[in-house]
């Protein structure tokens, strides 16, 4: 069993909460930027990338605020990790501050962060932020 560390990345997005809610909290929204396809059954999300499917259990969902999952593989191995998104509105600028939480083994954190950077680039393109 590999130990994993939680890391956070923060992004300023010039968009509305309504637009962000759609891309973070809906099946079709997630498939537009995070993965190729996603299927949801009960609290299990099946994310697909290039024909590879990875499943995650929904841990918490607060529409308009945050969503958090745990990879089933980590759950089965007893690794206490999660990944997810949360956001808030900066009161001074009215910009949306998106925080992404991820986890990776120490030696894989740089690569994991680079992957999230690519996902956020896709997200920005999608929402015009």
How is this structure best described in words?
With 129 residues, the protein is of the alpha+beta class. The protein has helices at 17-25, 27-33, 72-76, 109-127; strands at residues 5-13, 37-41, 44-49, 52-62, 66-71, 83-89, 96-104. The protein has a single domain, classed as 2-Layer Sandwich (Alpha-D-Glucose-1,6-Bisphosphate, Chain A, domain 4). Helix content is 31%, strand content 41%. It has a 7-stranded antiparallel beta sheet. Strand 6 (83-89) and strand 7 (96-104) form a beta hairpin. Helix 1 packs across helix 2.
Question: What is the element layout, followed by pairings?
Answer:
Blueprint: E1 5-13, H1 17-25, H2 27-33, E2 37-41, E3 44-49, E4 52-62, E5 66-71, H3 72-76, E6 83-89, E7 96-104, H4 109-127
Antiparallel strand pairs: 1-7, 2-3, 3-4, 4-5, 5-6, 6-7
In summary, what is this structure?
By secondary structure, the protein is an alpha+beta fold. It has four helices and seven strands.
